[in-house]
Amino acid sequence: MVPGRLLLLIVTTVHYASGAFVGINIGTDVSNMPSAPDVVAILKANQITHVRLYDADAHMLKALADSGIEVMVGVTNEEILGIGESASKAAAWINQNVAAYLPSTNITAIAVGSEVLTTIPNVVPVLVPAMNYLHKALVASNLNFQVKVSTPQAMDVIPRPFPPSTATFNSSWDSTIYQILQFLKNTNSYYMLNAYPYFGYTSGNGIFPLDYALFRSLPPVKQIVDPNTLSHYDSMFDAMVDAAYYSINALNMSGIPIVVTETGWPWLGGANEPDATADNAKTFNNNMIQRVRNDSGPPSQPNFPINTYIYEMFNEDKRPGPVSEKNWGLFFINGSSVYTFSLGTSSRVTGNNSDFCIAKPNADPGKLQVGLNWACGQGGANCSVIQEGQPCYLPNTYQNHASYAYNDYYQRMHAAGATCDFDGTATTTTVNPSYGSCKFSGSSTITTNSTAGFTPSVAPGPVTPQGGSGTTNLQVI
């Protein structure tokens, strides 16, 4: 990926004592994924108290023990078929992936699959049986009051979400969705909705203004109003959630709260994705979190706060698809935040307007090597701390070493007109990239949101474009 010069500044996800919370999804299609303890260290340092895992990874569940973080574990789409056909397999899954970790690991929900109705229709017949078997296994273990079972579905199950008051589920899935809703009602659980205004806007062919998708206020002549109820919608996010509530009501069900299990906005896209920008992502995430903080629901359900999980913790650079698919992350893998954030327990905002110069995520390794060698040589940067055995040597990657060298050069020479470019491999950020004992130049007077005491996981040594070990190329001559 090649992010723009302006890094996204958002408020990260935290729990609010007033009731509604914002959590984070943790996807793992990430090169050099940090170790589970390192991931938890990032979560704790940033006061993030709710996470959703897409599986039931043992390393993560162990690392989350005694952290107090509420955990939603996932039954993968591949596991549903076996569980839905066998009560004993469901019981074994609960014993192995839930009961074995409670109470130390605060597991509070199970997400059965991900968008099953729209992605793997052949599994749909056993989806509700799988949910029932899992719930019965929880009952047998006396865990059903602590751990809720549900299944995340995409907005695609509602073919015409606007106006919300006339929204209904796709009729071909009515029977299954009714069974899901009946299960949720009977078990006092909640409907899991993946709601992405980014996709709603980009696929809308200009029907709705961008400001509406980004939670920005609209002038009176452009306000979005449901013609049937005359309800005003300040955001596409609220309209999407309300469309789901009306769809539930259309099946004569009520009293089932909605939790948004995924939402967000990509901060980088390809040439044909003009709306995936840092500015748009910054605006969306800031405004979305402020929206959730007001602890209210959409117009039709004002007393139902919209608990929400942001997508996602790291950029999943290994995911297939367009550039935007790989660029939703909130954190770099070395533990530093891509964005500034405010803590839910205070008004302190981490970071300020001072700039650091860092290597762009996924910049070309060959160009990073050239830039690193120049900065440490002709550029005059002090690169002693990125030598083996020194505080900033690990992770031993071109991105990490170049970030330190670029920043050291930039801090020394910026006043003389130096820029943060390095052949397009660098960008500025207001976020302090320091971590552990590795302190970046210019950080002494800046409040950092880096993880206190967090040491990044050791990444494999960088590989040169010629395929050899990059270690010797990092030495300063």
From TrEMBL:
GO terms for cellular component: plasma membrane; plasmodesma; side of membrane. It is an enzyme of class 3 (hydrolase). It comes from the Eukaryota. SMART domains: X8. SUPFAM superfamilies: (Trans)glycosidases. Belongs to the glycosyl hydrolase 17 family. This is glucan endo-1,3-beta-D-glucosidase. The lineage of its organism: Eukaryota, Viridiplantae, Streptophyta, Embryophyta, Tracheophyta.
